[in-house]
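To: structure desk
From: M.T.
Subject: fold request, one chain
Message: Could you run this one when you get a chance? Sequence is below, nothing fancy, just the single chain.
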Amino acid sequence: MEFFFVRPGRVADFLPLLETWRAVVLDCETSGLDLYVGDYILGFALAPLSPSDGDVYYFPVAHPDEENISKAELQNILGVLDNKRLVGHNVKFDMHALSQIRPLSGAALYDVLVLARLLSPDQHPALDLKSLSRSEIGYVYSRSDVMGQRHRLLKTKFTAVDIGFYCCEDVDATRKLYHHLKGRLTERLSRLFAAESRLTSVLYAMERRGILYDSGAVAELSAKVGAMLDTLLEEIRLVAGVSYNPRSAPQTRRLMGELGLTTESFTAKGGATWNRKALVAAGNATATRLAQYRALAHLKWNFVARLEYLASRNVPAIRASWKNWGTVTGRMSAELGMHNQPKGWLQLNGTAPDGSVLYWSEDGPEYDISLRSVFRPREGSAFVLVDYRQIEMYVFGFYAQDEAFLRLLGSEDVHGATAREVWGVSPESKTWGRMRRVAKYINFGLIFGIGDPGLAAQIGGGCTAAEAHRLRKEYFGKFQGYHSLLRRIKGQLQRNGFIESIFGRRYYLPEELAYVLLNYLVQGSAADFVKTRLVAASAWCAPRGIAILNSTHDDILFEVPIPALWDLGELFSILLTSPFGMELPIEVKYSTENLSDMRKYGEEGRSGRAAEAGIAAVG
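Reply: Done. Structure tokens follow.
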């Protein structure tokens, strides 16, 4: 690698060379990581995506110790980049940094992080650039001293030239790593990487737009959560004593001992530990309240605190960094839990069907705290939320190919249909509510690999593991697809050492963990499907002024100009298209107020559009 530090006035000489590059590798250096709240770009490096060593060029933007390139010259560079293929490591971050000079909307983005995640058989691989380049290609940085200080560069002794050289090494490592990893892709993985790359561009647009929040609603939410934390702590201290500190591990161990409770969670050194899961599993009211306190405190000091900080800095929108490389299944994740924002209202006195510490329900009866209530659509727009409520059931049905189970998917109430099929109960029966819950827990338990004790705990009401086993056995008497799918998974593992989803994503685990791979297969395929819909929907939405704002594991949030609100039939048709041999029913809600007070799409306006698009509510 030959390093060039480009001086002011020399950009015009560089532009003809840049024009010849078909694809460009880039990296940015910044003053910190919070680019929309005060941090800024210091400079960036560019190089051609050539398989051989090539020159790398660094452009100083805002170094305090250097004469920087003018904004006009920098914008000329970015004007050329905007029609190129851009390769980077965490390339969306670089795009946000460059947007401080000029937003890029036409570039195609390719991320080495995504590429490495697709190829790794590990559950939790090291994906930072230094680790990846060292382990994959034996790359050694000559300025590792700069690397260790990279997120506080302005507080160090390093000069602009030091920082620029390190940035160029990042580009050099990224370029070599990209060629190395790209050469290992199979045809199916190449198609999946292309799909993920298109998604990267969509996620960048989502991040850049952000979601507006109401600062008054944030203050109200903070006060309510704070008051609830105080109430929970008072309840806990009635049992534990007024000096009890819920953050103290020794005090918590002592309290649990006094309550006669034991834990199955231990530290690496064998010491007992009381995490939230262990507290809930204890089945004790005080332990449950402590778990709720900790979970709510986490929300208060992360999600709510971030919104309060943004409000204090007059930043009107919250932006989370989305990772389409962060999980082994292929599910996306995002900062502040934006990928998993709970729907509905906190039910502190209710029990979550899935065993979660905090139970959120759209059906009440408690309507005091909703995280989504702080989000507001932009003026003249409405939120439209499209929800694939039981997508995992449909994906499981596709893989299991159980004719009896597939018939159930034609019902508006899959879990109710399961209860009728297996146990012969009807909605008029006294046991209907319980048996429908049992059906729901077993249906989802197949996917999440829950055992008999866990199933019994979910059913509640004194259900024993033996009874849960009997109920499960009766269920399997009707549906054979689960065990058939497990056998096929084990067969693939024996032949290949991995299993492969319909999208080409690979999962690696030993044969004895085939039930875990079933979970990966279903959840990962559901996630990859939603991601394909994000990309397809974005192509339709962008020219119409419709923005995608957020996506959880099973829904997509749009911001729609009000004049277009009742003309979304084509969009719904795009979202309904699936590779699973069936259309997945969707439920659509909208709001012009906030993300909690949502109405069923079609309650106002031209309701026939929803029906024409095949929208169905699912429970």
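Reply (cont.): The longest strand covers residues 23-30. Let me know if you need anything else for the meeting.
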